[in-house]
Design a protein that fits this description.
The chain has 444 residues and is an alpha/beta fold. It has a domain of 98 residues: ANL, C-terminal domain (GMP Synthetase, Chain A, domain 3, 2-Layer Sandwich), CATH 3.30.300.30. It contains eleven helices and 20 strands. The strands form four sheets. Strands 4-3-5-6-7-8-9-14-13-12-10-11 form a twelve-stranded mixed sheet. The protein is globular and about 70 Å long. Zinc ion (ZN) binds next to loops.
């Protein structure tokens, strides 16, 4: 019988078994953190919470949150790994650096045991997305310090698949290698195949579907949740396009993926991570149940080098299901709906720029897909002003129709009133990453 899960013991735990395991691991981890992490010793002493107070998972809420800024400050105090390094530095086996501007990145250190767990969770995710030992997968993420490069490579390898380290750039050579080396799977960001399509046509006079790829494993950017985007990629390339790689680089490289039965991210970090949700405004805990939305707060359950407790990820998570999936996995399903800093309240409705992006993506080529939400005053809002780029081929006499169409779609899909200001294609300034800033605050 085919093995459907990489680590069935962890991926199919009953809720009861999982709660028991989490409690045991958490108590052990807290013993370790209280004994070895200087940053947390200080934080918990300031908060006045002794270790004896933490007797079960619920008691975690007594402890203060950890923010990214605290990790940066810690690494300034004690370079390079910070005083939240809880293992002897000679036990650090691998170091990554998160992306970010100078002074804002974080060095992430992992011991051998941390790595084994990271690779196990990553392999669960890639296996869930369909990767098997017979696959030959070319890995096209940046290997320069970033976790998505070498550590994802090792995660792919842990499934038993053959992995070719390619990295980014050199697209012509990449296509040549896919053609020559019997590659049948690719791992990259979801926007990368589109970039390759032009080169395949221009340099090889081929269609992407002739390359023989069967499976695409994607992560690092949103996009695949949109069925239009995904169907287009699957038709053009003749491969299954899987959202296979969701992680938080300061915490755990990859701990969620879709499965063959259900195109929703499954939580696969059992035994490594405890997930909690909080309201980003009030910071009150929100129970994990279907329909809940909150900021994802993560606590390591078995981490040696840099254990984190109640770490605020700024990622807003919506819980889509908590029953066991048809595939047999019991981890809850979720989607990331935005960043907590980007969440806007319009007449009691939570609005995320990603929602607007999805509405506009369905309207391409009538629009380019780029837009900006312009805020002229602080919250609360009764409506949002949205600057939207119209498509290259739209005649001037169709502008009013287009404006009404977009406003209607926003109302229908997102339940708030958007007032659209149409602007010329390519007129909204892009960042270096090629995307426009989604929210502009024009007030002090
Ligand atoms: Zn499933």
């Amino acid at each position: 019988m085919e093995q459907t899960m990489f680590n069935p013991d962890m991926e199919s735990l009953s809720p009861k078994e999982q709660q028991k395991m989490e409690k045991n691991l958490l108590l052990e981890q807290m013993d370790y953190v209280y004994a070895h992490s200087k940053m947390y010793q200080d934080k918990f002493a300031t908060a006045g919470i002794k270790k004896e107070k933490i007797k079960n998972v619920q008691d975690l809420t007594l402890l203060p949150f950890t923010t990214k800024q605290e990790l940066r400050d810690s690494q300034k105090r004690q370079a390079p790994f910070g005083d939240f390094l809880a293992a002897p530095s000679m036990e650090v086996s691998r170091v990554h650096r998160t992306s970010g501007t100078t002074g804002s990145f974080i060095y992430t250190a992992l011991t051998k045991k941390d790595l084994a767990q990271t690779h196990d969770c990553g392999a669960r995710a890639f296996w869930s997305a369909g990767l098997r030992p017979h696959h030959r997968v070319i890995h096209c993420l940046n290997y320069c310090m970033w976790m998505g490069g070498y550590t994802d490579h090792a995660n792919l390898e842990a499934t038993g698949a053959t992995v070719i380290p390619f990295g980014v750039g050199n697209a012509k050579q990449l296509i040549q290698v896919i053609k020559d080396a019997g590659i049948n799977a690719i791992s990259s960001t979801p926007s990368y195949p589109k970039h390759l399509e032009k080169i395949i046509k221009a340099e090889f006079n081929m269609d992407p579907s002739e390359l023989g790829l069967e499976l695409g494993l994607f992560g690092g950017e949103p996009g695949l949740d949109n069925p239009v985007f995904r169907n287009r990629m699957e038709t053009t390339w003749g491969m299954k396009a899987q959202n296979a790689n969701y992680g938080v680089s300061d915490v755990l490289c990859n701990f969620a993926s879709v499965c063959p039965d259900n195109y929703k991210l499954h939580f696969l970090g059992q035994g490594a991570l405890l997930v909690q949700l909080v309201d980003p405004m009030t910071l009150e805990d929100i129970p994990i149940r279907e329909g809940a939305i909150g900021e994802m707060v993560l606590t390591h359950l078995k981490k040696e080098a840099q254990p984190l407790v109640r770490y605020r990820t700024s990622d807003l998570m919506e819980i889509l299901g908590t029953d066991p999936c048809e595939c047999g996995r019991t981890g809850f399903r979720f989607q990331i709906v935005g960043r907590s800093d980007d969440m806007l309240h319009v007449k009691g409705i939570n609005v995320f720029p990603n929602g607007v992006a999805m509405v506009l993506e369905d309207l391409v080529p009538e629009v380019t897909g780029e837009f900006q939400i312009i805020l002229s005053h602080p919250s609360p809002y009764t409506h949002l002003d949205i600057r939207v780029e119209y498509g290259h081929e739209i005649p001037l006499n169709k502008m009013t129709d287009l404006k009404v169409k977009i406003e209607t779609k926003i109302k229908e899909n997102l339940n708030f009133r958007g007032v659209v200001d149409l602007v010329k294609p390519d007129s909204i300034e892009r960042t270096k990453m090629g995307k426009a800033r989604r929210v502009i605050r024009n007030y002090e």
